[in-house]
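hiii, so i know i said id send this last week but things got crazy w the move. better late than never?? heres the sequnce for the chain we talked about at the cafe, plus the structure i predicted for it. fair warning i was half asleep when i ran it
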Amino acid sequence: MINSAKMKTVIQRVSKASVYIEQKEVSSINEGLLILLGIETEDNSEDINWLCKKISDLRIFNDDNKIMNLSVKDISGEILVVSQFTLHALTKKGNRPSYIKAAQPELAIPIYQAFIKKLGQEINKEIKTGVFGAMMEVSLINDGPVTIIIDTKNKE
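okay and structure toks below
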């Protein structure tokens, strides 16, 4: 049986980004990546390892010739990760999205934490985060704009 689960990310190159809860800033970064992370039930360490390596080496920052040729590691950029189960919305049937593919918190939180730890190891820097499961306001300045969608099922 083929595993249809996928860890899904929306990656935005930002000049700055912040997370607020009840009008209080809980986390912020300057130049780097804002990552919205959706986790499915069957996601595992293989997905985490592949995705963290891909993100840390993704060359989407400009070099001196204004060519996207540098990674977040190359520029000593920061990363802000925000959990977002709505990335797994199913919208085929009706007008109210279904989120049945999104992992429940008891499964998603350990994967989310492992992802953050592994990504921090990949870039050798602390990863900033939102608060898992909280109602958050995310503020960002998308630089470019550059927005990339990656999921671990479709390794394109």
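btw Helices lie at 45-57, 105-123. thought thatd interest u
miss u guys!!
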